[in-house]
Amino acid sequence: MKGLKSKNVLVTGATSGIGQAIAVRMAAEGANVALNYRNEIEKVAETQEMIDDLCNQIKGCGGRDFPVEGDVSQEEDVVRMVGEVVKEFGSIDILINNAGIQIAEDSESVSTEDFDKVISVDDWLKRDRFVFVGWSGILLFPCAFLAIGAWLTGTTFVTSWYTHGLASSYLEGCNFLTVAVSSPANSMGHSILFLWGPEAQGDFARWCQIGGLWSFTALHGAFALIGFCLRQIEIARLVGIRPYNAIAFTGPIAVFVSVFLMYPLGQSSWFFAPSFGVAGIFRFILFLQGFHNWTLNPFHMMGVAGILGGALLCAIHGATVENTLFQDSEQANTFRAFEPTQSEETYSMVTANRFWSQIFGIAFSNKRWLHFFMLFVPVTGLWMSSIGIVGLGLNLRAYDFVSQELRAAEDPEFETFYTKNILLNEGIRAWMAPQDQPHQNFTFPEEVLPRGNAL
Questions:
Q1: Distance CA 433, CA 440 (A)
Q2: In whole angstroms, what is the distance from residue 137 CA to residue 229 CA?
Q3: How high is the mean pLDDT of the chain?
Q4: How do residues 31-77 score in pLDDT, each as one tens digit?
Q5: Which fold has domain 8-122?
């Protein structure tokens, strides 16, 4: 077993059966094994002798063994036992909850006490340890809890009257699609809006009114996403796999950070970030189109190609695998024929390759390259969109076909889809400016407006 050398292992019920076999093998592979027993001290000697025999057969192996007495159905025994093992080895890297008891009675004659005794064995070793926390959890769990809690609180009770002049909570009559935690008032600039800061001065109601819940949700949400990415790295390292899940998750993180943090940082205030709500996100998309012509931005085009391309690849791959499953069972359907531990292939890569070679004249012949491509396309699309949003925050222009605009202004009969979209953007700006930029008075001189035949 790769990677067991110098690991500290606690095996419950290590004096017989499966527990004994596990303990012997792990010790032979170089692990330090704590041998839990209840009252059969003579069997511990037998286990230690088996360890020595196996180590003699395998050259250059063998870790320490340490007998530790304890009844794993008793909390005080478990606490003491774990303490003794940690004192002896310094830590516990692997815990094998093997101990168990069996009541040799008919099920109808088993008492409640006997049932509880069966269930309680090893219970204290597993209790409060079901969710892996790790170092990443120190960042993830508190930040995620606070971000989700702030969003639920804001959408339930807090109005946006003082920031956007809107109703935005269930309490005010909104539904799931229209509630939101709205971005702060424009006058707040880029202040982090601490509850104890100069804006709110410790007044919770005032803090909610000026948009403090939005900055609270955005910052804790960003740290929670980073914590979740680190969690994937941490668990991948513990399990012994590559960290590509974490690499893939950098795409959503980049989108969140660019949209909710980088874009408003490039603008005049947090006010121009999207509010945390479905309709709020839709309004933000319209804003990006009207004020930045986002759909004509090459980074938006790459983002659309990546996301829709990833969806297409996923659909094609799923359909191809389903089409080429081996008929390797008499079960009612192909799903029941699969076993997680089976060593053989579950579908025919050769047949799939032949099919797509006939369709397109080209096909993936390497599964690893195929799946890397399925990872690369959507993640790259997300990153390209994120870069584009940062550019919008800095007011970088999309494609501008000025020659078409000038010709449309001079020739009433000349119009393109580009000039029509420019007119639509002007309309969006004229409509949104009084709400989203009330401090600016937008006027559009006649000579700068395209006057195509649609006018």
A1: 7
A2: 10
A3: 84
A4: 888 888 776 666 667 766 776 665 655 445 666 778 888 777 777 88
A5: Rossmann fold (3.40.50)
135-274 CATH? 1.20.85.10
Residue 319 token pair: 């359909």
**What local confidence, expressed as pLDDT, does residue 125 receive?**
47
What's the predicted TM-score (pTM) here?
0.69
Q: 54-63, 245-254, 376-385: which has the minimum mean pLDDT?
A: 54-63
Q: What is the pLDDT of residues 337-373, one digit of tens each?
A: 777 776 778 888 889 999 999 998 888 888 899 999 9
Query: CB under 8 Å to 102, separation ≥6 — which residues?
Result: 118
Sign of the CA dihedral 346, 350, 351, 357?
A: positive
Distance CA 13, CA 126 (A): 15
Domain ranges (residues) in the chain = 8-122, 135-274, 298-448
Q: In the structure encoding, which two tokens stand for residue 368, read together? A: 């690893």
State the Cα angle at 351 between 348 and 353, rounded to 5°. Answer: 105
